UniProtKB/TrEMBL annotation:
Top-level taxonomy: Eukaryota, Fungi, Dikarya, Ascomycota, Pezizomycotina
Pfam families cross-referenced by the UniProt entry: Lactonase
Protein name, per record: Uncharacterized protein
Source organism (scientific name): Trichoderma asperellum (strain ATCC 204424 / CBS 433.97 / NBRC 101777)
Family, per entry: Belongs to the cycloisomerase 2 family.
MF GO annotations: 6-phosphogluconolactonase activity
Length: 368
């Protein structure tokens, strides 16, 4: 059965068809929608899956689109210019009523009313604490909703902090700040376990600058979430930490498998001809939760800023900003490891033409 992929890069939004039986990915009969700026992230409404929120990362504009897969159309419903400049991630509440936009460029968090497919700006919250973060430049990068649906955790790459926001309060206040090791660069994170409505037991934080996954044990209180560090793990195989290929590397994305047994991260900006997805086993033992790095798999390209796990858990969809392959589909085996040879892909020269912005996809997600 065919699956549909939403793919975005600077200046373009694509709808593609992935056919596992072939296997192939095509966009020729689907959609190539020109768009001003850089729509580098999308948030899909949990209550109205045809409503997609995005932005222009190069400006202060936020958009609401309506997706019609049967007609291969993406129609702009609303456009607002009252958010922060340089937003790079959008996170939605469980009921779809609140959206948090994280701005790397401005070091702020925008709060939006998105109830029933609306797009109403509420307020901007500075990420930086003027005292605790004195001398630092805030870089809010992602807002992650916890499984209970009450708290957002915002990873701030510039202040090396995690900020806990309480979405149950009318003003969505910051209720806790957790300092991470200086120079770590908190980028993206996932709660464990991720399904259901029960409080999470752990949080896995991918750090861009240190190229490590930090694991925190969590304790919920009546007003916030408390974090305790229980482990730290390199995203590169042993022996690579001093290798020339990872000098200046910057980890990109993290994802957790649906069963919670495997975590994946992307390694970027290395000197290797192609870059990799790292695979970790998640080990839940008597002494606590830990990660075991199993291996790295080539993405067929360079600068894999974002990837996502397919809805049935059988594949990884990876976007490369540079290199030969713009998008690749990596098969997930039953043991969580990834096949070295991609199942299918889109070559960079199929979608990127000379003369315009030559950066490849920054976002790829299976949609319904």
């Amino acid at each position: 059965m065919s699956r549909r992929l939403l793919i975005a890069r600077p200046g373009h939004i694509y709808l593609a068809t992935y056919k596992p039986a072939s296997p192939t990915i095509t966009i020729t009969i689907d959609l190539d929608l020109p768009i001003a700026g850089n729509p580098s992230w999308f948030a899909v409404s949990p209550t109205h899956p045809n409503f997609l929120y995005t932005f222009d990362e190069n400006a202060a504009t936020t958009f609401l689109y309506e997706l019609d897969l049967a007609a291969n159309t993406l129609t702009k419903v609303a456009e607002r210019k009252d958010g922060s400049e340089g937003v790079c991630h959008l996170g939605l509440s469980k009921d779809g009523g609140i959206m948090i936009g994280s701005s790397w460029a401005s070091g702020t968090m925008d709060v939006w009313n998105t109830k029933n497919g609306s797009l109403e700006f509420i307020k901007t919250i500075p990420s930086k604490d003027p005292v605790a973060d004195a001398g630092r430049v805030a870089r809010a990068h992602q807002a992650v909703l916890d499984p209970t649906g009450r708290f957002f955790v915002v990873n701030d790459l510039g202040t090396d902090s995690l900020l806990v926001l309480d979405s149950a309060a009318a003003d969505v206040p910051i209720v806790n700040r957790i300092r991470v090791l200086d120079g770590s660069g908190p980028r993206h994170g996932v709660f464990y376990p991720s399904g259901g409505d029960s409080p999470a037991t752990h949080y896995m934080l991918l750090c861009e600058k240190s190229n490590r996954v930090i694991v925190f044990a969590l304790k919920y209180t009546d007003k916030d979430i408390e974090f305790t560090t229980v482990g730290s793990y390199s995203t590169f195989m042993p022996g690579d930490s001093a290798a020339e290929r990872i000098a200046g590397a910057a980890a990109g994305e993290i994802a957790l498998s649906g069963d919670g047994k495997h975590a994946y991260t992307s390694n970027r900006l290395t000197s290797s001809p192609t870059e990799t997805i790292a695979h970790f086993r998640v080990l839940q033992e008597e002494e606590g939760l830990s990660l075991q790095l199993v291996g790295e798999t080539s993405t067929g390209g360079k600068h894999p800023r974002m990837f996502s796990i397919s809805r049935d858990g059988g594949e990884l969809f990876v976007g490369n900003q540079e290199g030969e392959w713009a998008v690749v589909v990596l098969k997930r085996r039953d043991d969580g490891t990834l096949d070295d040879k991609p199942l299918a892909g889109i070559r960079m020269d199929e979608i990127v033409k000379p003369g315009g912005d030559e950066r490849g996809p920054m976002f790829v997600l299976e949609v319904v």
